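so my prof wants the structure for this chain in the tokens format not the other one, which i didnt know existed until like an hour ago. anyway here's the sequence
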Amino acid sequence: MAAPKMIAVFGAAGDQGSTVARCLLKDPQYKVRAITQDISQTQELTNLGAQVVTANLKDRSSIKDALKDVHGCFVVTSTDFSSPDPEEDEYRLGENIADVCMILKIQHVIFSTTPGVRDVTGGKARHWDSKARIYTFMKERDLPLTGVMLPFAYNQLLTNKYAFQKVKEHAFKLCLPMGDVSLNMLDMGDLGKAVHYIFNHQDECMNKTFNLVGDKRTIKEMADILSTELRPYAFEDARMIFSQMKALNFPGSEDMANMFEYIQRGDLRFNLDTTRRMVPDVMDFTTWVKINKEALIATLK
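here's what i got, hopefully its the right format
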């Protein structure tokens, strides 16, 4: 029997990295090196058998140490909106990772990418533009590369304070500026399954980008599903417009509004059939709401 392949997972303390690490740890043909900047957030992965290491992504020698004897990598970068230049800072970190992967001849890199918004709409969406630039840089370095592009994650309803606006007791508006256009969505847990599939089918998936999706719903349809499953709570579409999101003035609010403007244009295509081939049990929105009913209600209180 072949020795297990070591897969390095960047951002292991975050939503994407942690779900990828947990999924790979279920398969004995892989070992996981969970890379983080805060080891205190990864105890669960340690308990599951991951080798947890810290790495300073500003320091290429630190990244090199973290990637020693690694077969493949899942790479996700994060945006720090408190930084004076969030986009450039994130880009430099991605550039460092890409260059080290090239030097060490990592055999397969899976990058969680996004489309560039600025070149299409003229508006800044620094958390997306940075990742688009990193992906382009990785391609220029001729890395053995696969991209995964995620839509809106169901899980964001549990973490984004702007998503729900309380109108009165048990009554809320769903504040996502999509008009009547369907929003592509995915359960974060299905990302891990898709990445597992890609590592298992390296030749088939090399030099491709997969736009993953689990469901497509208008904001009104999402509100109706939430109302049905979370009774006595009732929800309606706030019919939010981009300027209203920008006016919320949280860190990155303008970037998020510009992102939704890009999404509403419909330039980005997500393929449910392709996702189902990779993740046959991909979760739809209604199922996710039923499973996460208690967490959603806690968010509303």
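also thought this was worth mentioning. The CA atoms of residues 91 and 126 lie 10 Å apart.
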